[in-house]
Design goal:
Layout lengths: L4 H15 L3 H8 L3 H9 L8 H10 L6 H6 L13 H42 L2
Helix pairs in contact: 2-3, 2-4
Length: about 130
């Protein structure tokens, strides 16, 4: 399987620039040595890296843990939260939509409860006069 370390370097550099980070910050966030980050970013030393290194860098950059491994091997990276299993990803997306809708319903119910409480307090004040 062909490895494309230049693509990994490009992906990292674009993401680091978008985040406004320096090399040191990526090293700190990923817990990968700055020397290794430098080698990968500048594509100066092409050698096999630990899957954990690529995973740590991916996670630090806010990507799916397998993002850089996918880039390395010429595959389409998964988005955060995706598993690569279409059925599971569909169910996860639907559950997320349900959670969002439940949040909206809860907010509306809270507003109704607050309004009802205010009405009842106002009614009690009028009854005590």
């Amino acid at each position: 399987m062909t490895e494309n370390w230049a693509a990994v370097s490009k992906a990292i550099n674009e993401r680091v620039a978008a985040l406004g980070w320096k090399q040191r910050e990526l090293a700190e966030h990923s817990h990968v040595s700055q020397a290794i980050v430098r080698e990968i970013q500048h594509h100066t030393v092409e050698r096999k890296r630990s899957a954990r290194t690529l995973e740590a860098l991916s996670l630090a950059l806010g990507w799916h843990p397998g993002h850089l491994a996918a880039v390395l091997h010429g595959r389409k990276p998964l988005a955060s939260g995706e598993t690569g299993d279409e059925a599971i990803d569909t169910i996860t997306a639907r559950l997320s939509a349900i959670e969002d809708r439940l949040g909206e319903i809860t907010d509306r119910l809270d507003t109704i409860a607050e309004n009802l409480s205010a009405l009842l307090r106002g009614s009690e004040r009028r009854d005590t006069r």
